[in-house]
Records
---
Amino acid sequence: MSALQPSHILFFFTLLMGTITTFSASSWFTAWIGLELNLLSFIPLLATSKSNQYTSESSLKYFLIQALGSALILASAPLSLQTQTMTMIVITLALLLKMGAAPFHFWFPPIVQGITWPQCIMISTIQKIAPMLLLSMSQTNTTSHILMIASLSSAVVGAIGGLNQTLTRKILAYSSINHMAWMLAAIMFNEQMWTIYFLTYTVVSSSVMLILHSYQIFHFNQLSSFNMYSKSLTLALFLALLSLGGLPPLTGFFPKWLIIQQFVLSESIVWLSVLLVSALLTLFFYLRIAISSMVFGAPKMKMSMISSPSSILLSVTLINFSPILYPFLGLFLY
């Protein structure tokens, strides 16, 4: 893993600046500039990491997909002279493509497979902020139906796609697609609910990826010796995965609980049923990772391998096992 360089810090700040520009934009042109600044800052962060031979391929794929989404946003401008509805449809489809939501998800798992864990955290969290903000601010009756279809398809694809995977990065990529279904549903209700869900998903998924990054776990086979590092490490990963799956009373359950309440009040039972069944399927392959790390061990290997960083384990355990602190987040968002 390459050391942190000053250029990485510069590009990371310009990446955040692009997201802030999109967030504070007063026109679609300014929002597009923010998206482009975000893209041009993230590509060097991908390309400068030489962790494996697929890094350059992932950078090129990501650039082409994001450039296609930006081109669709620009192409929607002439359509506004004829009909506003068609313009919003094209922009919505372009934003769904840029954030990797189904049915435009095909580029997301291969790119995640070719990058490092810190880059996985960025592409799963920070890179989705700007498109989701634009989606929440550009809702019409027609685009609401598109978001519902995208949410349902993301739930199905994210749940089924991760079942036959043995690569941990692809599993968390399909997990991100499934969580995107819940976030698209939250966008339909209000921005505060989407903010709560997104912040919770960011914290919980980052805790899982940081543990896997600390020990460079990329495949199921590497989990066989995972339980020899420390029992507290195995427990922290177990709690983080269950929290990511939305199992009560862990932190990841509470934003889903809020969305379920809104679904019940709006009587959208079929949509809710699809999301809940998909959540159960994702919980299944989270448990595969957790149980593999706990049960399958090689006793002949030496026990004095790597001492687990206690500060990371303590913070991960507290984050995922302290839901009593979660309601205080509402004081800042409502």
Note: Residues 235 and 317 are 8 Å apart (CA to CA).
---
Amino acid sequence: MRPDTPAENVDHTAEAARLERTAGLYPEDAEALLLRAAAHLELSGDRPAATALYDRLLSSAEGLDNPSLIRALKASNLWEYGHEAEARAIIEGIRAAAPLDPAPWVIVAEALESHDELDAAAETFTEGARLLLPDGTEPPATTHPLLYGRHRVRRMQGLPHDDWDALADTLHASAVSQVSLDELHDPKRVWSLGSENPAEIEAEIARLRAELGAFREALSRPFPVAMLHWPAAELAELISAYPSLTTEYPSHEEHLATIESSLRELSTSGTPNLGIVTGTVPSYEAFAASEGSSPADPTLLPQYATTLAARGRATSWPPQRGAGCWCGAASGYEECHGAG
């Protein structure tokens, strides 16, 4: 992880020197350590020293894990202190090399974007997406910044949404965000955050803090509806101990299908914050005892689910894109209960 702490709070020069010394002691970790050291030097304002570290790493490129990433970081750094021609040459070299790691694509595209090269930035984001996201494949989490960056630049250009923009919207929405990607990438917001006017920056930061507060409040609210899920072994034990509950659970397959269909109906009707809680027979029996009732009483089941949710045991539904299915199957949600 690259540091992003402001220079007034950290002695970045001293931290970079410490990381360089550590890299000398642990050569097997030198690449990661020197990249962090270079980032600290960039934050300290000593960009030529950061370039020297990137060159030091690239001088032995055959032993590097990710030379394209280092070249991308070097290009971005060079452009920031006046070496535009060299930076452009490196960026063109990276695009021609077509690395299979999304990080270099994102870094060079953002470098172009930060210098108002929006057409070139959009082309670079698109090249990376075309290479790393073949049609019909589920985008891994590492490629999400590529799609988000492309969406942002195209929004700045005033272009209509295409399929990848729609995919970026879907991925962002599935991350339980309160702010749509279109609003987040509103050109006025992007420009205000890049403004040199302190009043504009402070106003946008205040707006973002308010949105974050609303998001946290929404997440902190208990699930209004949490469906009770019994794993196969637990349901078999429950029915064996309390045969009268067979009317509630004719079979495990029907139980799972009912959960998914009920949640879809609730979602369609506009019910927010849907969730699933997983029950166990000992926990359910303890709950029934605390209520002075019998576990065979089917009216206890929704009360038990609500109690589990109130204790923070609920997981949100639907799962995020690419996540496993809530039922516990080995396949992902889209291939299991999310199919169709």
Note: The CA atoms of residues 260 and 337 lie 7 Å apart.
---
Amino acid sequence: MKFRLAALVAVLAGAAGASQAAEPVIGLITKTDTNPYFVTMQKGAKQEAAKLGAKLITGSGRFDGDNSSQVTALENMSAAGAKTILITPGDSKAIVPTIEKVRKQGVMVIALDSPTEPASAVNALYATDNYQAGELIGAYAAKVMKGKKPVIATLDLFPGSPVGAQRHNGFMKGFGLPAAAASSNELSKDSDIVCMADSDGDQAKGQTAMQNCLQKNPNINLVYAINEPAAAGAYQALKQAGREKDVAIVAIDGGCKGVEQVAQGIITATAQQYPLKMAALGVEAGVAYAKTGKMVSGYHNTGVNLITDKPIAGVASHGTKFGMRMCWGNR
């Protein structure tokens, strides 16, 4: 009897161990763990992992562009048994050698939101078409400015960022200004753009950048912002200068707070993207890889929509009610 009981315990323990061993381990590394955009991405990954029976481990940079923390996270996750790692690269070039290292160990690496440089450094990319997002708000801004001489300030991300360049250049293309192609990481310039400043996508830095731009040219009547925090900072600077009512601000992200700012008239229009969807699709691909051994590849466009309560003929858009219903969480 004791033997049978011991044998049964051993069988059950073995079954439990096999079950745990079969549980796919998926890593998610974001640029930071404080930006609401990446918090939403983590939320989407956690929800999908729980739904599909996967174990999710997370990590992040301490700040946007913190490569060393992301390198450590990649190495630790690979050592912990993650066979799929999702990453929003903070430094698109510097992270590549470590990605190549873990891929040689059989780990599937999927970039979310931001491409690596080169894009082929990862197995796949799930992201917004950032150039298209820029084109959407650029085309809208051109209609808003019809009949006015554009005096433009751009609040960009930081030098060398593929996302920053694609959004900036896409905006210029949509506006009708000469612009580099989506493959370029250089910011295009034009005489209509009287001030270009880096904001790091941060509200306080966006406010300072806008204050500096207004000192350079107080006649600015259009602001392109890399994201909604930078746009909110620009609005505060404009408000301090008494210019908030006669300057249009366009941005990209479409977070719930950003959509509220569109409804309040702080931001004129924003291009909405879907980070929860990016993360969820990445987790799905990771679970499928664990079950079938098949890796995903290539670029997967997760969609973008223009959100504004001031629609203009000729530019497809949705109102803020749609934007609030869909903000960052659409599957």
Note: Residues 2-22 form the longest helix (21 residues).
